[in-house]
Amino acid sequence: MTGSAAPREPASAHAGSGTREGLDVSNGRRVVVTAGAGGIGLAIARAFALDGDRVHICDINEAALTGITTADPAITANVWTSR
Q: What residues contact 27, with CB distance under 8 A and at least 6 apart?
């Protein structure tokens, strides 16, 4: 490998107060989560919402997104779909 770039520090070296598993979780941000109707995307959306962030979720499954925002009061999200 060529170049003069210095080696990176491990991600954990950057984690400080206000972080969870290397992610900044400062309250009050606006967060956009794509593929938010299920799986990892939904878990991420819920984690940010529970930490006090305003979460906007996007997915191609409009019915699933509507169900999530209706059933989960922790997520007050705007629902966008791609068509």
A: 51, 52, 53
Measure the CA–CA gap between 64 and 78, rounded to whole angstroms: 13
CA 42 to chain CA mean position, Å: 8
Cα 34–38–40 angle (5° rounding)?
70
For residue 79, what are its two tokens?
């629902």
pLDDT tier for residue 51 given thresholds of 50, 70 and 90 = confident
C-alpha 46/C-alpha 49 separation (Å) is 5
Amino acid in the structure at residue 34: T
Q: Where are the alpha helices (DSSP H) in the chain?
A: 39-50, 62-71
At residue 8, the 3 state secondary structure works out as coil
pLDDT in tens, 37-48: 899 999 999 898
